What we know:
Elements: E1 6-11, H1 14-22, E2 31-34, E3 41-44, H2 46-49, H3 59-65, E4 70-72, H4 76-93, E5 97-101, E6 104-108, H5 118-133, E7 137-142, H6 145-155, E8 160-162, H7 168-172, H8 185-193, H9 199-204, H10 207-214, H11 217-225, E9 238-252, H12 255-276, E10 278-289, E11 294-304, H13 307-321, E12 328-340, H14 352-368
Parallel strand pairs: 2-4, 7-8
Antiparallel strand pairs: 1-6, 1-7, 2-3, 5-6, 9-12, 10-11, 10-12
Amino acid sequence: xxxxxxxxxxxxxxxxxxxxxxxxxxxxxxxxxxxxxxxxxxxxxxxxxxxxxxxxxxxxxxxxxxxxxxxxxxxxxxxxxxxxxxxxxxxxxxxxxxxxxxxxxxxxxxxxxxxxxxxxxxxxxxxxxxxxxxxxxxxxxxxxxxxxxxxxxxxxxxxxxxxxxxxxxxxxxxxxxxxxxxxxxxxxxxxxxxxxxxxxxxxxxxxxxxxxxxxxxxxxxxxxxxxxxxxxxxxxxxxxxxxxxxxxxxxxxxxxxxxxxxxxxxxxxxxxxxxxxxxxxxxxxxxxxxxxxxxxxxxxxxxxxxxxxxxxxxxxxxxxxxxxxxxxxxxxxxxxxxxxxxxxxxxxxxxxxxxxxxxxxxxxxxxxxxxxxxxxxxxxxxxx
Length: 384
């Protein structure tokens, strides 16, 4: 069996680096990108991290730890643009790659050693990204996605590391278990209470015991601790669209009800985005009138899967589109330019309450069905 060569590339302190790129005065100072007083930290500079500031931390706590930090609201449009630039560079060079998030990529360069040194090639690709975008990047080259992702974390900032099969155990064993991807705080606390704090101890546990202790995820965590990961690099792709339409039983001129229906359709599509881990960069609203004339309008927006962003854009398009004041036969919403990946929620626009609300609503919808919870105004949609 051929040993795989999997690269994980991660842009260092991405949102912060984007801001520094556009303003050199932000270099070498504690910098936080995030929401207002009730929001959370989306990203922070290494200077801020020295004070204990971390991503997803409540802004109030971050400013208590680092009161002299400069806070920037954030510009998702800029970050999305620079993310696309990095992806385009990788797309030009890499035979197979996956966009895992707005600032992360996996590359499968298995077999490249026969023609060109894999580590040298990846180093030159990283240098090209830095040269053409001005953004710092770190990477690790190893045998699978798990080990390479952990490796990148150890190499940061502006670092690189190669971990061949023969070195995987010696690399992983001394690391704390928090370094394992997808090992959450609850699992960490549970394992810590029984004395399991480094990866070596975790890897040596009987897999059956681990499964009994933490459930079905126990097997996956055990595999990761042992450097086992057969997950392939998923080819980067943009799904064409997600859409929904509603043809009325009777042509309607009820604006209030149509606006409520529009909100409900956006909620449904946004929930589908988050469930299937897509983000959209374009909203299209379509209106078909009673005489079968059809009008569409679209608007580009920074990558998002948030209800309130999509709803606001759709309503703005509807108001611009619905000019004839004729009866409407059909109303539709289409989300285009979808990118697959585990993208961050727009932390610098959402408050803690908003983040918690989306998580709670998605859990309820997944358990009890989509119609189990929604905005109050959408109850009008069934009256059309």
